[in-house]
Design brief:
With 132 residues, this protein is an alpha/beta fold. The chain is built from six helices and six strands. Helix 5 links the parallel strand 5 and strand 6.
Length: 132
């Protein structure tokens, strides 16, 4: 297997991540985590993964990428934690609530030697491309 993924935040958008990651032979969701255990267990079952009991468990696990699919206000802290643990981060959009928080996220990933991506696919929709 190529990349082991932890899905942090198991609300509505997490279903799309389970489906998207599941379509790639080189990726698998290995862990799910949410502050509420029931959504984490549901997404773990959908992905054939294991639900983690804490964020510390996620960060200590043998995973490569953390998908941050939580409410926007929590993205900076979770991204910084993942970067310090040496995990690449894919953050849901919007990236953060301020430019200063975005800068913090970028700096944490640079310092941690990991990549940061933002899942903002609307920019590829034809209407947006035409406007550009």
């Amino acid at each position: 297997m190529g990349y082991k993924v932890a899905l942090v935040g198991c609300g509505n958008i997490a279903g799309s991540w389970v489906e998207a990651v599941g379509q790639h032979d080189e990726c698998e969701i290995a862990l799910t985590y949410d502050l509420l255990s029931e959504p984490a267990a549901k997404r773990a079952e959908e992905a054939g993964a294991r639900a983690a009991a804490s964020m510390d468990e996620v960060l200590a696990a043998d995973i490569d990428v953390v998908i941050v699919a939580t409410p926007t206000g929590s993205h900076p802290e979770l991204t910084e934690q993942a970067a310090r643990a040496g995990k690449h981060v894919l953050s849901e959009k919007p990236m953060a609530l301020s430019l200063a928080e975005c800068d913090r996220m970028n700096a944490a990933c640079q310092e941690g030697g990991v990549k940061l991506a933002v899942g903002h696919t609307l920019r590829f929709f034809s209407a947006f491309l035409r406007m550009r």
